[in-house]
């Protein structure tokens, strides 16, 4: 008997309701204006590593896909981040945010100051998508189901609370409000169609849980290093370095 798709979709959405990183204390701090300029910069530096790894994750996925239709559908995700002749791309938009918060963009792009835990989490995600079944790989992307809400909250909170926030510096998030719904509509439909046994549904649900853990652990690392005093690990970015402008928060 084929499992019920509606019940499975509800199960996936419940995972987001319980586990998505919009519930993390660091995001509450950031969106409410409670972050110091240094904490904002630390977030920008570390989140860049995730942003820059997304097209590599998607390229690894596509290298295993034999179906041309699936490759065509997935290709736009790489272009959305890497850019095209007509589209600046998400990575460059994130570097504009780095400029706006007063960081040296070359330093951010080098990823030299990224927290070790951030690298471990993001690299694990790339490996997961490269090595797991196609179903699990696609299912892990379904955190996009919950992304528009957090992007909207972030835009509102940053505009209200930080001097650096404007249409240019927040263009990454504004663009994702348009890009993410298209991606998730395809990904969700694909997962619902291909998770046609209880075992496959369990695997897909666990893949989504894995991805929420990847996102959550990145914020745990940020909170531990830059909100709790004296916890910055060796080699990670130190406040006061590679900064081009001092005033970030209002």
Automatic annotation (TrEMBL):
Name the UniProt key words of this record, in alphabetical order. Answer: Oxidoreductase, PQQ biosynthesis
Instruction: Output the Gene Ontology terms for molecular function.
Output: pyrroloquinoline-quinone synthase activity
Enzyme class label: oxidoreductase
Q: InterPro entries this protein is in?
A: Haem_Oase-like_multi-hlx (IPR016084), PqqC (IPR011845), PqqC-like (IPR039068), Thiaminase-2/PQQC (IPR004305)
Instruction: Tell me the GO BP annotations in alphabetical order.
Output: pyrroloquinoline quinone biosynthetic process
Cite the EC number.
1.3.3.11
Q: Where is the Thiaminase-2/PQQC domain?
A: 10-220
Under the heading Pfam families, the entry gives:
TENA_THI-4 (PF03070)
Catalyzed reaction equations: 6-(2-amino-2-carboxyethyl)-7,8-dioxo-1,2,3,4,7,8-hexahydroquinoline-2,4-dicarboxylate + 3 O2 = pyrroloquinoline quinone + 2 H2O2 + 2 H2O + H(+)
- Annotated pathway, please? Cofactor biosynthesis; pyrroloquinoline quinone biosynthesis
Q: Which Gene3D superfamilies match?
A: Heme oxygenase-like
Q: What function is annotated for this protein?
A: Ring cyclization and eight-electron oxidation of 3a-(2-amino-2-carboxyethyl)-4,5-dioxo-4,5,6,7,8,9-hexahydroquinoline-7,9-dicarboxylic-acid to PQQ.
Family that this chain belongs to: Belongs to the PqqC family.
Q: List, alphabetically, the PANTHER family matched.
A: 4-AMINOBENZOATE SYNTHASE (PTHR40279:SF3), PQQC-LIKE PROTEIN (PTHR40279)
Q: What is this protein called?
A: Pyrroloquinoline-quinone synthase
What is the native source organism of this protein? Roseovarius aestuarii
What is the taxonomic lineage of the source species? Bacteria, Pseudomonadati, Pseudomonadota, Alphaproteobacteria, Rhodobacterales
């Amino acid at each position: 008997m084929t499992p019920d798709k509606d019940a499975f979709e509800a199960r996936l959405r419940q995972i987001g309701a319980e586990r998505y990183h919009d519930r993390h204390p660091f995001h509450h701090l950031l969106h409410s204006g409670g972050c110091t300029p240094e904490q904002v910069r630390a977030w920008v530096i570390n989140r860049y590593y995730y942003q820059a790894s997304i097209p590599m994750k998607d390229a690894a996925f596509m290298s295993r896909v034999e179906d041309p239709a699936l490759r065509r559908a997935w290709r736009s995700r790489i272009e959305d981040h890497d850019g095209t002749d007509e589209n600046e791309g998400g990575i460059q938009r994130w570097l504009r945010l780095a400029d706006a918060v007063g960081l040296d963009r070359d330093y951010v792009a080098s990823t030299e100051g990224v927290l070790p835990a951030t690298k471990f989490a993001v690299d694990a995600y790339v490996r997961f998508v490269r090595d797991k079944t196609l179903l699990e790989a696609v299912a892990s992307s379904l955190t996009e189901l919950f992304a528009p809400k957090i992007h909207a909250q972030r835009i509102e909170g940053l505009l209200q609370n930080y001097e650096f926030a404007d249409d240019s510096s927040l263009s990454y998030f504004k663009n994702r409000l348009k890009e993410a719904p298209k991606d998730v509509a395809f990904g969700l439909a694909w997962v619902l169609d291909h998770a046609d046994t209880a075992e496959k549904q369990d695997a897909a649900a666990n893949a989504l849980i894995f991805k929420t853990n990847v996102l959550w652990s990145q914020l745990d690392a940020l909170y531990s290093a830059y909100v709790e005093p004296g916890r910055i690990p060796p080699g990670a970015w130190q406040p006061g370095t590679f900064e081009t402008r001092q005033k970030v928060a209002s």
